[in-house]
Write a structure and sequence with these properties.
Keywords: Membrane, Transmembrane, Transmembrane helix. This is DUF3995 domain-containing protein. The chain is mainly alpha-helical and 197 residues long. The chain contains seven helices and two strands, in the order αααααββαα. Helix 2 runs antiparallel to helix 7, helix 3 crosses helix 6 and helix 5 runs antiparallel to helix 7.
Length: 197
Amino acid sequence: MLRNPTAMIRRMHGDTVEDAPRWAVVSAYAASLVVLPSCLWRIALGFGAPIGPLRGDMGDARGDLPGWVPMWGYTIFLSVLSEALAFLAVGLVARWGEVVPRWIPGLAGRRVPVLAAAVPAGTGAAVLTIVTITSLPGFNEFTEPDGTAVALEGWRLALFVASYGPLVLWGPLLAAATAAYCLRRTRRPSPTALSTP
């Protein structure tokens, strides 16, 4: 049982900066969470759950994946990587996004340059927004490794939309958090106000 969920979140993610607007904090955390449903769907599919568009044995789904890599391992890797990238949005409102944490040797305590965070975040937001919007027309259509077109239907389609639909928000949420980060960091008068995390 969680006694203090706020304290647990702060311990895991670090403190948010005091001057971050509430909407920016919500955007950053939401950007890190909208990826989670698709990760869970992908992992379930990798373990052989009959929720995807593929017919027959999961061996048919391997495509170009080498035979020595288990499908479940591949889907877990992709999901962890996706969630780790999504989690970087929290750095736009957390202390570790402004001052390098003390556990990083050689850089500890140095300020993170605004552009070092803003350019990758802004580029990511733009790419994510374009990719998700352009993929909407064929959202339920897939091509199997043998070239056969398959469309999801019924409850599988509903589950897929519930799992992957939130990804449409990833780019705009990241863009909002990035804009707030740039405005806050460029308006702040003195960098000495921050202490090392």
